[in-house]
Design goal:
The complex is a heterodimer of chains A (253) and B (324). Chain A is an all-alpha fold and 253 residues long. Helix content of chain A is 76%, strand content 0%. Chain A is built from 10 helices and no strands. With 324 residues, chain B is an alpha/beta fold. Chain B has 2 domains: 219 residues, Rossmann fold (3-Layer(aba) Sandwich), CATH 3.40.50; 63 residues, Alpha-Beta Plaits, CATH 3.30.70. Chain B is 39% helix and 27% strand. In chain B, the strands form 3 sheets. A 6-stranded mixed β-sheet of chain B has the order 6-7-8-3-9-10, with helices on both faces. In chain B, strands 2-1-4-5 form a 4-stranded antiparallel β-sheet, covered by helices on one side. Chain B has a 4-stranded antiparallel β-sheet with strand order 12-13-11-14, with helices on one face. In chain B, helix 3 crosses helix 4, helix 4 crosses helix 5 and helix 5 runs parallel beside helix 6. The longest helix of chain B is centred in the middle third of the chain and has 18 residues. The chains are: A mainly alpha (253), B alpha/beta (324). At the A-B interface, helix 1 and helix 4 of A face helix 2, helix 3 and helix 12 of B.
């Protein structure tokens, strides 16, 4: 058990050092939500007259922007494993005497740390939107973003466990990441949606992240414990499948 | 006990037989070479031995441990230098070695000393704290060698260790590996399709289409080739070639480059040649057989780059970029 923990920490420490040395990714991650918030947000501001909690549209999508940043960063982190597998350090880890559990958990946790950082930078913009957050709200928002990053990173690692080239990456982006984002209620309220869309939205784990963060930041009522449970269960299931697939690797099955 | 013991190892990828039951063993301190063209099964063999790929049948033991059932023990017993660079370019040399030590559970108290020693062995002490991005191709390779031996493995696998490096750097890498073998007694298994590299091996197995077609010391492999090739330029190529053919029954051919004669022992034949055709010979050249000739004799074709898949080409591109 202590070996497992120390193996995980080794993988996490290495990845975190690396990502801190790659500054351009960080700048990009700040620019994207700013553009969405201030250009799209202000543009659509007057189209949405009635929003829950009496907030304006920019404030309404702010939690969604946090989730977006974490979502994109997490998928990137998770799928960086593909690159790592072909051309880098993953092979070095795969032949080292460490368990597949350590690799999957290590990669997931390290990706979530990077993604969380990118989300937290955007969170720090809240005063510009006329929001007031207590320290407790900030702490809860960070926790919510971390759970979200863990869930999405585990998904990225799962994709990477079966994808061996970057050729399919565009497909993943279009058919997985975009739907996850647009079906999460990040951009629009979900209470008035038609039935089929509502069903998709509720089946989407990212919806629970958006609800959780929106509830915390805009002080809206909601079943946050349910949200947290859904996200955690999702993460555990996905990671378990990844471990299984990594163990199978090389057996030709 | 043999460090590597491979017996009737087979690997199928669907209908394709990548390995058709190969057997070999490596003793402590031995440098063993797997020589063959791309696609012959060299990398597949290494992948199975380092537990990255499951064999279809047969057995493979590393340091006495079964590659399937005791993969953790196997991994602890071996070091590997991959065909593609697998260093972390955004980390320093020291950090790369540090994380390797952690992954191989080197006791914390020993890590510093081992890293110092390994860096010294490959002459990189002065660049220990530079980012690997700033390293030349040869330096990266040396760092990978240092990393490969950090956890004191019993055998080091080197998959095309000098691919993509210039000849001078290649020679340096071999100096380091040779020194390493002498100072540590480490066994090595290397794959290559450079003939001159295979000559430093104690034993070479020539592999083609998933089968070992011959296995011996480089000297013995070449000894089995009967011929030295002597090429002479003379004042009358046709007449001399005819004389050698008719009177001596030798395989002599006159062409634009002069007369080419195949003989068993070139060194003793040349003086006879000069005695017989005194004054007629302008120049003489003798070619000793190389492992390339051995390969050609056994397979009927030379070792060369076979057609590469798009993934291979892309990989090579990345490799070149990284090696700069």
């Amino acid at each position: 058990m202590t070996t497992l923990f120390s193996d995980i920490m080794t993988i996490v420490r290495r990845d975190v050092i690396r990502s801190f040395r790659q500054k351009s990714q960080l700048y990009g991650s700040i620019a994207r939500p700013l553009i969405w918030l201030f250009l799209l947000g202000n543009g659509l501001r007057n189209s949405f007259a009635v929003l829950p909690g009496n907030v304006n549209y920019v404030q309404f999508i702010f939690p969604g922007m946090l989730v977006m940043n974490v979502l994109f960063a997490s998928i990137m982190a998770g799928t960086s494993v593909i690159w790592d597998r072909e051309f880098g350090f993953l092979k070095e880890i795969m032949v080292a005497p460490v368990t597949r559990v350590a690799i999957v958990v290590g990669k997931t946790v390290s990706g979530s740390v990077t993604a969380l950082l990118q989300g937290t930078i955007v969170l720090a913009l809240f005063p510009l939107l006329g929001l007031r957050l207590s320290p407790l709200q900030i702490a809860l928002a960070i926790l919510g973003m971390w759970l979200t990053s863990l869930a999405i990173c585990s998904l990225g690692v799962l994709i990477a466990s079966r994808m061996t080239s970057f050729e399919g990456f565009g497909t993943v982006n279009n058919f997985l990441v975009m739907p996850l984002f647009f079906l999460s209620g990040a951009m629009y309220p979900i209470h008035n949606l038609p039935g089929w869309l509502k069903a998709l939205v509720h089946a989407n784990p990212v919806t629970y992240s958006v609800n959780l963060l929106r509830g915390v930041i805009l002080r809206l009522p909601g079943d946050h414990l349910l949200g947290i449970s859904v996200i955690l269960v999702f993460t555990l299931l996905v990671s378990a499948v990844s471990v299984f697939l990594f163990t199978l690797e090389g057996t030709g099955r | 006990m043999n460090i590597v013991e491979v017996d009737r190892l087979r690997k199928n990828f669907g209908p394709l037989e990548a390995l058709k039951g190969i057997s070999f063993s490596i003793t402590p301190g031995e440098i063993f070479g797997l020589l063959g063209p791309n696609g012959a099964g060299k990398s597949t063999t290494i992948k199975i031995l380092v537990t990255l790929l499951r064999k279809s049948s047969g057995s493979a033991l590393i340091n006495g441990f079964d590659v399937d059932r005791e993969s953790r023990r196997v991994r602890e017993s071996l070091g590997i230098i991959f065909q593609d660079p697998s260093l972390d370019e955004r980390l320093t040399a020291r950090e790369n070695l540090y994380f390797h030590s952690k992954l191989y559970h080197v006791p914390a108290a020993q890590i510093g000393e081992r890293i110092r020693h390994a860096l010294q062995l490959v002459d990189l002490q002065e660049r220990a704290d530079s980012l690997v991005t700033t390293f030349s191709g040869g330096m990266k390779r040396r760092l990978e060698i240092a990393r490969g031996i950090l956890h004191t493995p019993k055998v080091l696998f080197l998959d095309e260790p000098t691919i993509g490096l210039d000849p001078q750097t290649r020679a340096h890498i071999w100096d380091y590996l040779d020194g390493l073998r002498r100072s540590t007694g480490l066994a090595m298994l290397l794959t290559t399709h450079y003939m001159d590299e295979a000559e430093i091996c104690d034993r070479v197995a020539i592999i083609d289409h998933g089968e070992i077609i011959t296995m011996d010391t480089p000297a013995n492999l070449k000894k089995n080739l009967r011929h030295d090739i002597i090429t002479i330029a003379t004042s009358d190529d046709e007449a001399i070639a005819a004389a050698l053919r008719d009177q001596d029954g030798l395989d002599a051919v006159s062409s634009s480059g002069g007369v080419r004669i195949a003989v068993d022992d070139g060194q003793t034949f040349i003086p006879q040649l000069f005695a017989r055709f005194a004054g007629m010979i302008h120049s003489v050249d003798i070619e000793k057989p190389s492992l390339e000739d051995v390969f050609i004799q056994l397979t009927g074709r030379g070792i060369r780059e076979e057609e590469a898949s798009s993934a291979d080409r892309f990989r090579r591109l990345v490799r070149m970029r990284r090696r700069r």
